[in-house]
Amino acid sequence: MSNKLEIIDLHVNAGDKKILKGINLTVSDGEIHAIMGPNGNGKSTLLQTIMGNPNYQVTKGKILFNGEDVLSMSVDQRSRSGLFLAMQYPQVISGVTNSDFLRASLNARSEQKVSLFKFIKEIDKNIAKLKMKEDLAHRFVNDGFSGGEKKRNEILQMMMLKPKIAMLDEIDSGLDVDAIKLVSDAIIDLKNELNLGLMVVSHYERFFTSIAPTHAHVIVDGKIVVEGDSELVIKIDQEGYDWIYDELNIEPLVDEKPMVFSLGVCARNQRNNNG
Prior knowledge:
By secondary structure, the protein is of the alpha/beta class.
């Protein structure tokens, strides 16, 4: 069965502030969608809304996954259906080991309990592939982890849970060049294994080059204003966003600083959570 995530005329508020203003986007099996745009324009809001963050209120539109109404599902139902979000700011869960967390998550998705032997074999294989510390399974989730370790741990969760559609929110930020290569290789291997559909937010052209997007979308002021393929990623890396403002006669947001889409851009303030 093929998988399809459909976002239809999606409008989203955060409190009294309008963030998304009519997003239309479809993601199918095997597609990699690059979600781009300056800070504070709605990229993370889109992914968080799909996954069910209660801080964002849908005021209009639909989200369908294989024809089912995602907005009527709880967060855990969305996860069980095959949706996955690798977070920009992974949370610490003290007192819960990675192995307990992942095994409980897998058991919640299966009618039969996951074999302990198979689970240990799979998690050890994936930890080694991501070149993470061998004791990772016995450490508390993200407790005492560096920023890069937290991001790789999100990818480990994706590798173990094997979703149908995965959303990656700046998963490459905080990673050095070697770690970006490890993570991008793991993403592509999983994509090829599962025919996985992906939505990827990033500011790094090198990361997008590694995973080769099939589609690219630029969000400005809560709307998709330009769409294309990997050539659009290259154009933005070389020219930034000014040409979009000029061609479409769009005014940048007041607190927005137009940025060049390059490897050198790595700063991200946590106050820009809705971007």
